[in-house]
Every structure is written in C-alpha cells, then in structure tokens.
Inverse folding.
C-alpha cells in the first residue's frame, strides 16, 4: 500500500457506542476490509522494526508519531473531516490509548525481545481476541457473543501455530503480558470515544498525545544527539512506520471497530502474525514451515466461525 492509497471516510457512529452488526447477519466484507488491511500493515511492521533495534527508542518513536500526527491532520483537512476537541472524561480515554496502546506497548515489545524470542511476544499479542471478545461487548453495553467467544481461541491457536512458542524467562513473560494488555487497551479504550470522534478523531488525538509523551521520555532519558545517530535505513523505517503502520493503519482499524464492534474486530488481530510471516518470506526468510500453513488454515476457520451470521445469543443491545 502506498501513501496515495485512498482512505475511506468514516460515517458518524451512534453517540452512545460504535455500531454493531445484526446478530442474524454476517458481517459485510466492506466493513472488515479496512481492519484486515490495518492488521496486515501492523504485521509487516515486525520486519521493518528490526532495523530500529539499535536506534534510540523514545526519540525514534517520537519522530514517528509526530510525523503521523501531521499526516493525519493534513489528510483530515483535505478530506474535510471535522475534528472535535476532547471534553471531560474523553481526555482520559484518549490519553489512555496513547500511554498504553502506543508508548507502553512499544516499550514492552522492545524490552521483551531482550528477554524472550519474538514469537513469545507475538503469541501474547495474538491472544487479544479473547480479551476483546469478553470485555469489548461489555463496554459497548452488550453481552458477549457466544460465537465470537468460541472463535477467539481458534484464532489464537492459529496464530500460535504460525509464530511458534519460543524461549523466554520470567521477565520475558512479564513483558509479554504487558504487551497483551496494551494491545487490548488500544481497542478497548477507544470504544467510549469512537461514537463522538470517529476513527479520524480518535486516531489524531491518540497519535499527537503519544508523540508528546514519547518526546518527554526522550528528553528525560536519552542524549540530545540521539536522532543524529540514525542511519538512512533507520530513517526509512521510521517513515514507513509513521505513514503506513500509524497514520493509515490506525484509521483503517478504528473504522472497522466502529462498524462491527470490538469483539468481532478483535478476531482480525490474528491477521498480524500472518502478515509478519509473509513479510519475513518476502525479505528473504525462506518458505513457511508446514506448521505455518496449518496455522493459516486454523486461523481462517476461526475467522469464518466468528464473522459469519449470529448464533442467537444476545448480541443486540
């Protein structure tokens, strides 16, 4: 996907909560495609981020989110999308997305791979559908769907087959759990504010808040000359993460959450490890192992189970 890819505008959602599909009908593909594309971009970031292992963590991420915030503001203005300032408790929800879903998540991933194989962190993040299937509908004032709750472990199992398990120590487990919580917070904390702000507003506010937090951390913990040490390749990685993995992927993901609800959207996080495996192949990592193909089949089965028509449970409000 290039920077010229058109970004669908988001229709205003219900003022109380994001809209949800009827429990008696399958989720329209047009509502799922943005989330699928967003998760594919997130998965591709694993390969790209490897070039930033030796870069100053907070400085590089601060530049990434500052650039993404500027891009989002320019796109919103070009698309004539109205952006509203947060009010009241909305500041807390949006700040929570920035602090947990952006800042802490990046710290957990970078610090986690120092104690555990990347597969451990990836499998933890792939467990997000279970949390979203349970907690998301409650935030949307609905009861969890039995079909989604049944499909979520299947999606997780497919992701585990794709990524493997990997070795870790106690600290690695702790960082993996933190990454899981932060990834869930990225979606769950957006539920109360998507109704008024939509995908554009939530993305813009979360990104600029995250940029401010990361800039403060960089000033307090890193050398002023840290950015001057970035190589051309690392600047390219920062640019890719800013444009596609942050600005574009955030808009796509929150659009799907607003359209289908956090529970069903959460199943799509299983796309990320598949995209990561595919990006690894394209970058010269070799053909996928048989377990990866099996994981793909299991994951697709889980998605089909959770995203097709309702199961008669109380999915409606």
């Amino acid at each position: 996907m290039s920077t010229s890819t058109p970004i669908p505008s988001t229709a205003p959602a219900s003022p109380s909560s994001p809209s949800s599909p009827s429990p008696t009908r399958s989720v329209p593909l047009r509502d799922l495609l943005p989330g699928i594309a967003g998760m594919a971009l997130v998965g591709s970031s694993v390969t790209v981020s490897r070039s930033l292992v030796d870069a100053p963590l907070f400085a590089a991420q601060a530049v990434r989110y500052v650039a993404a915030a500027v891009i989002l503001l320019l796109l919103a203005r070009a698309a004539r999308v109205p952006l509203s300032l947060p009010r009241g408790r909305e500041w807390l929800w949006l700040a929570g997305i920035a602090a947990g879903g952006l800042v802490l998540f990046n710290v957990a991933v970078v610090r986690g791979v120092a104690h555990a194989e990347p597969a451990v962190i990836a499998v933890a993040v792939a467990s997000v559908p279970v949390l979203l299937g349970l907690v998301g509908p409650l935030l949307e004032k609905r009861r969890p769907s039995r079909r989604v709750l049944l499909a979520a472990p299947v999606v997780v199992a497919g992701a585990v087959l794709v990524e493997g398990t990997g070795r870790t120590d106690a600290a690695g487990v702790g960082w993996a759990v933190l990454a899981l919580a932060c990834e869930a917070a990225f979606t769950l904390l957006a539920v109360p504010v998507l109704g008024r702000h939509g995908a554009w507003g939530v993305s813009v506010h979360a990104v600029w808040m995250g940029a401010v937090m990361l800039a403060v951390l960089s000033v307090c913990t890193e050398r002023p000359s840290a950015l001057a040490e970035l190589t051309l390749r690392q600047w390219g990685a920062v640019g890719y993460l800013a444009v596609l993995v942050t600005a574009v992927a955030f808009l796509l993901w929150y659009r799907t959450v607003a359209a289908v609800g956090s529970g069903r959207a959460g199943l799509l996080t299983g796309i990320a490890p598949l995209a990561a495996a595919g990006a690894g192949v394209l970058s010269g990592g070799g053909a996928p192992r048989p377990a990866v193909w099996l994981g793909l089949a299991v994951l697709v089965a889980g998605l089909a189970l959770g995203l097709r028509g309702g199961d008669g449970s109380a999915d409606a409000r």
In short: The CA atoms of residues 25 and 314 lie 13 Å apart. The chain has a mean pLDDT of 78. The first helix runs from residue 29 to 49.
